[in-house]
Amino acid sequence: MIDNLLKEILRDAELSSKYNISEEVIKKAKLAPPYENKVIEYLAVIIKSKMVEMHGDITVYNKVKNLIK
Amino acid sequence: MASIINQISFQNFFNYYGPLEDNTYEFSTGVNIVVADNGGGKSKFFNGFLWIFYDEILDSDTKTRKTIKNQAVKVCSDKAKYEAIVNDLIDCNVAIEFSDNRFRYRICKGFRIKKLKSDASLIDGSDWQVFFKGLEVSKRDIQLLEFHEVYDEDEQRRILDKLIQPNLREYSLFQGEEIDKLIDFNQADSLNRAVKTLTDINKYEELEKITKYVADRAEKDLNEKVSSNDTASQNYMIKLGEKEKKKTSLTHELEKLKSYEHSYTENKAEVDRLETLNENAEARKDFDDKIKEQNNKFKSIKEDYDRLVEKLNERFFDGNFGWIAMGCGKEIVSFKEKLNRYREERILKKAAILSEDKHNHINLLPPDSPDTVTLQTMIEREHCYVCNREAKKDTEEWKHIVSLLYRKESGQNKSVQIFKNDLNDFFGDIQLGAQSYVGRIEGIENSILRTREKEQDLLDRITKVKDKIKSLKDERSHLIIGDEDNMTDARQIMAQYRGALSRLQKSEDDIVKSKTTIESLNDLIRKDEFELSRMRPQDTPKEYEIHLDIASDIRNAAQRTRVRVFNDMILKLEKEANQHFQNLIKYNELAGGILKFDKNPRGTIDFNYVDEEGNEVSGASEGFQRMKVLAVLMAIISVNPYGYLYPLLADAPLSAFGQGFIKGFFEETEKVFPQSIILIKDLYDIESENKLNKLGNELLNNDSVSTIYLNQIPGNLKQIEVYTEHKKIPK
Questions:
Q1: Among B75, B105, B180, B592, fewest CB within 10 Å belongs to which?
Q2: Which keywords has UniProt assigned to this entry (chain B) (predicted)?
Q3: In terms of CA atoms, which chain A residue is nearest residue B568?
């Protein structure tokens, strides 16, 4: 159910164009790793943390902040 | 995987007398129907669900929901209470079993009551002691047979919520007229609340908020990092300051937008309210006109009636049918006989006197006829009106007429020859017939009968008009909102309406302007961000920049996606709603209107019911109104990509709306709800062999209908012994 949310955001024309996300990739996109693309990982972590694990905003931020080193 | 109710059982619950196993209904996916006539236990059945979900039951006397804690004695079967002896304990339970793709769950709520007195009242709580049990929940793997108790209260609650989520229960569990309140088209927020509850559009809003938070934090972290770097140029800091100012302006503008949206919502509600009121005012005026017309009619009939009553006295002495003569018909005959006898005797006496002289003649015309005036006329006109012949002057005939004129003086009466004639009856009848009362005596009874019929007709018309006036007044009273009846002046309502409309227009304009300002500020901020990215010191950590870049892109994508998904949803909603609506009403002779959904400036949905030309349709029948609500509810569920995951439980959802609507409803329900359990009277037919009417038997043979149960009360039972029997009708 939540996977659909991820896919809908990835279907945004500007986002998919800037990060070269194909329809093929979008169809396969899931909240669970492995991720095809850094943006997908970033977005998946936000969605999973906030909407599945029900974390607070600060925890969500700290999780995504650690994705880019 | 949707939750499916497998069975529901009752023990001594209202009419459901006896142990759970005697009152168990088994259901499966698709449409499940329980058919029962009035008093057959439909609402009691539904009360089982109300108890499980809300610890309430619907009090059929007051039509209000009451907590079961105070209703236990009333809820328990009368038959069980009646049969109990002092100190007996009676169990009263409702148990539901349901399953998803992994587990089968069992939820049971119940209590026991103990009889304290031998002559205990069946409803008085003080004669009984009540012991409530806690919620009992157990579950088993669908592959296994044994249930295991669930003791953890949180787990118990989660299992109950799995059956139907608390926020969805109002859309999943309803009784009769409650459907109309599910989506109140006169309440601007009602539809939007249903859309937010039943679709995942909320998730997009939630995502928009969290991505904005993440992007703002990423920017803040980056700026802090750059600001702490000594190599940051003064220009960079100035630009950063400018950007912060714009962000502050943006925050203020967003606050203003919120206030405009709030104002829009308030004014929209006011406009909707006044539109309803205006419609009511117009409808009231229609009713007033109709009531006035009926009052005039009443006045006119009442006048006719009063006139009829006033004239009753006159009718006793009326020249045509003097009712006072009623029953005197025999007296007239008797009078006539006596008169004839008198004449006969009188003539015979005269004849006896004259009989001595055989040359004397006497005619038996009435005495002294023709009269003097007639004789004079006959002499002057030389014509005999008795035999209608000429009597020329000085002829024998003329002289005879003259002699008759002077008969008294001449003693002619004594010298005429006596002979008998039959003119007595003839002249007697003329005399009697000339009397206005006499000829019509026979018709008096008929006249009275006609008058009474007329009186009854007037009284019937008076009653009919009075009833009509009462009914119009009743209908009119439903159009009164609060004390608004005092504000009957439609112009006053219109003035308020125009004011509210103008304020609504202003808030719409404000929202549009504010959104333009926000967009423009966002553009400027993005430009500043771009410039700042170029002005950042070389040694700014790349990960901070990448972090901000991705976070900003995701935030912007989340914003655009929410708008796109919402716009797409409105289009789908309109398509689905009209499709469901047409299917729901397809067996009805009247064609319905078009359901129209539009996005308003506030970004929520406006709903209208229009005709093919786009004109708003009002005054649709109750059946169509309910079908509108059901169509929109079904559409909202249908646009949800995951469908609906809970059963629909409805008691008398379409009572008295006709077989066409019912047929459409069953066909359409199956497409939307994974399971439905419908309690209904309208498929019952006492004359039919299996107690189902034509539509009931059609549904029985329909593949989408899984089960049909029939509830019946055995005949010839005292009220205290009443209990419900049920049987599954074989397909």
A1: B180
A2: Coiled coil
A3: A8
d(CA B43, CA B50): 10
Phi, psi (degrees; rounded to nearest 5) at B19 = -70, 165
DSSP-assigned letter for residue B133: P
Q: Identify the band that residue B119 occupies on the pLDDT scale cut at 50, 70 and 90.
A: confident
Q: Which residues of B touch A65 (CB under 8 A)?
A: 217-218, 221, 547
> Does the beta-carbon distance from A42 to B213 stay under 8 Å?
no
B206 vs A: CB within 8 A: yes
- Indicate whether B332 pLDDT > 50: yes
Q: State whether residue B165 sits within 8 Å of chain A by CB.
A: no
Which residue in B has a C-alpha nearest to residue A4's C-alpha? B641
Where in the sequence is the domain holding A7, given as residue range(s)? 2-65
Alpha-carbon distance of B636 to A17, in angstroms, equals 32
List the structure tokens of B569: 């949803």
> B526 — contact with chain A (CB < 8 Å)?
no
Q: In total, how many domains does chain A have? A: 1
Going by pLDDT thresholds of 50, 70 and 90, the confidence category of residue B482 is very low
Place of tokens 């002829």: B395
Q: How many CA atoms lie within 13 A of B516 on its CB side?
A: 5
Distance CA B670, CA B676 (A): 7
Collect all residues of chain A within an 8 Å Cβ-Cβ radius of residue B556.
Answer: 14-15
Taking the CA of residue B642 and the nearest CA in chain A, the distance in Å comes to 7
Extended strands (E) in B583-730 = 594-599, 605-610, 648-651, 675-680, 705-712, 725-728
Q: Where are the domains of chain B?
A: 204-301+507-558
Q: What pLDDT, in 10s, does the model give residues B377-396? A: 899 989 888 888 889 999 98
* Spacing of C-alpha B314 from chain mean position: 51
φ/ψ of residue B233, rounded to 5: -75, 160
Quote the strand ranges of B316-413, DSSP E. 361-362, 383-384, 389-390
Bridge partners of B26, per DSSP, are B7
CA distances (Å), B237 to each of B219, B228, B233, B544, in order?
14, 11, 7, 17
Residues B346-382 as b/e (b if ≥16 CB within 10 A, e otherwise) read ebeebeeebeeeeebebebeeeeebeeeebeebbeee
- Residues 6 through 65 of chain A touching chain B, CB cutoff 8 Å: 8-9, 11-12, 14-15, 18-19, 38-39, 42-43, 46-47, 50-51, 57, 60-61, 64-65
Answer for the pair B227, B221: CB distance below 8 angstroms, yes or no.
no
- The residues facing B651 across adjacent strands are B175, B679
DSSP B594-614: EEEEEE-TTSSEEEEEE-TTS
Task: Find out whether B205 and B561 touch, Cβ atoms under 8 Å.
Answer: no
| B276-323: pLDDT as tens digits | 776 666 677 778 888 889 999 999 999 999 888 888 877 787 666 678
Distance CA B678, CA B581 (A): 19
Given a contact cutoff of 8 angstroms between Cβ atoms, the answer to whether B463 and B241 are in contact is no
B561·A9 Cβ contact <8 A: yes
CB count within 10 Å of CB B466 equals 14
HSE of B555 in the Cβ direction (CA atoms, 13 Å)?
20
Dist. CA B159–CA B198, nearest whole Å: 20
- What is the sign, positive or negative, of the torsion defined by CA atoms of B469, B474, B477, B479? negative
Q: ipTM of this complex > 0.95?
A: yes
